[in-house]
Input
Amino acid sequence: MTGGSYVRLEDVARHAGVSLATASRVLQGSSHRGRPEYRAKVMASAAELGYIPNPHARALAANTSDTIGLVIHDVRDPYFALIAGGAIDVATARGQFVTMACTYRDPELEARYIANLRAQRVRAIILAGSAFVDAATSKAMTTELESYYNAGGSVVSITRHRLPGDCLVVGNRSGAADLARRLVDLGHTSFALLAGTTRLVTIRDRVAGFKKGLAESGIEVDPAFEVSGTFDHDGGLRATQQLLASGRLPTCIFASNDVMALGALTALRRAGVDVPGEVSVAGFGDVVMARDFVPTLSTVHLPLEEMGAHAMELALRDERGSSPRKVTINGEVVLRESTGPAASRRRR
Amino acid sequence: MTGGSYVRLEDVARHAGVSLATASRVLQGSSHRGRPEYRAKVMASAAELGYIPNPHARALAANTSDTIGLVIHDVRDPYFALIAGGAIDVATARGQFVTMACTYRDPELEARYIANLRAQRVRAIILAGSAFVDAATSKAMTTELESYYNAGGSVVSITRHRLPGDCLVVGNRSGAADLARRLVDLGHTSFALLAGTTRLVTIRDRVAGFKKGLAESGIEVDPAFEVSGTFDHDGGLRATQQLLASGRLPTCIFASNDVMALGALTALRRAGVDVPGEVSVAGFGDVVMARDFVPTLSTVHLPLEEMGAHAMELALRDERGSSPRKVTINGEVVLRESTGPAASRRRR
DNA sequence: CCAACGCCTGAAAGCGCTTCCCGAATCGTA
DNA sequence: TACGATTCGGGAAGCGCTTTCAGGCGTTGG
Output
């Protein structure tokens, strides 16, 4: 980036026959209303010369920028890809830029990255991804974020309580409880739980909600049926194989996210267990593949893309909300092919 | 972003008892080697005060920035999510920022975005996503990119020929031809092609390569077996249903990408057609779900994440290559459960 | 022992934009 | 018509950093 000539504001001003200050005021649009003929002239000149302001100069002078920081767990994970997609689209439509990082839930990496975003004077920071149950882990990151927030920056977090700024929280507890009720209605009485890491608040909530839903009907989960594993396809697969190896199967398996549920489905299929004839399977999240798998997966639908878009809209509000708002997004149970009436025990 | 106090270079300099210029030179590291005691003092002061340079001031003065522009088709598409993931990780590791946009193959949006990236003086632009066969469509975008390139910026494109700068090109033709040969070896003689949009260079190449591979064994594709559809799961599903409705099935279906192949698998499963017993199915790309589906999908593996990482590395080379380099990435055929020996015609 | 030569350092001039401040112009009203 | 109240435009001072330009000092060679 050495050469290259750029049209500067000064060029526009001269071309329009006004001062630099006036040109600047006109182009920022905002509330300024100068002499209409000046406005017109400046706009015309800018268009004619193909003027694009130097964002760095602007940022330096005004101490703000037109970029938003997006910090997520991992783009490769469809859950976050959807959120990011929704957020990015809104930003692009509003002429804002998005700088994105994947932090893989590493609190230290998060902290460093946030510090950099602050130095960049980003307009807002959007943070997606559940925190660890152990709040102390993310102390450094929280501090960093607070100092950004206190300096006037907007913060919007998704699924992450206790952070400054606005927050979109997913009704994990209630969604899972709803799902449990629906499954109980189908006649299920014995359940397995594939929990993934219980260190994540999100997962803990889903599990707790599910248990609560069952408890309303007096159903408890056999501890032997609570299997944990990694939070991905493979985790679901292995956990289910473990279940299969134990020789005893529940009538229904709840995985704390869709990808794990898909893994469970695969394991069952390979073992020749009929779904939903013998065992029903349900997940949480409604990631794209849930609809495309065979059998299609019953799950709790989360409007991930809309959540990303909503987060970006909150982030871009002109004025930072006087009082931080907390929006709860409730999932909706969607029963598809992977669940069915409980097979009567005798018949097996 | 109003309040907030930041440590400036001046503070560091004063604290270290040197001039601003010296502090600047030390902190940029680079080749400068001043008096060692000064170096040490400055470094220590910077660390002690928690100095983070203002990237905008730096960008303004030096006319470069520490950010890379990443322009992709769509984050939600796992193919691009993987590329983006690989690229972002490399950038983060090197202390660079990534600003990302999804342009949905809209050439006009691409052009606008690239112009903005240029104005931002990004260090490099990485562009992923096949172009349309019709080159004229992306004229504006190409022009914009050229003017960026000529101004000294680095450009790395993935799967996109004829653009200035370096290019990672996927061996679509050869990969598809390899796949075809392997399928022929399995005894298949009648093939269906689910092509998706043939307006994309990538797809056109895959189809052409596949046909070439078949032709080597004197096999041609029955025109009735060339079905096109949208480039996604649903497209593969519908195309296959169309095939099923026609009453005649090939022994093998090749979909020009994995998601379509997964759609085909779903359609066949629903219709009760055994895979690979009656029909074999293969895709292209080896997106994560290909390995996790039931049956697991035979496909051409593309090292997408590595491609993203590689692209970023090219983009971050200190000096822009004197002559733009073109790296060809060859896919590797992976036969999994969705393909098998051709069922003998008689036996059906 | 002195001149010529390097290497460092610090002062200062921008990079392109925003915004404060003040004089000029405009408007309303008596 | 004239005067104060407003509004608007232009000059100029930065925003925080890089980099040029001299000048200072320590070396080396004659």
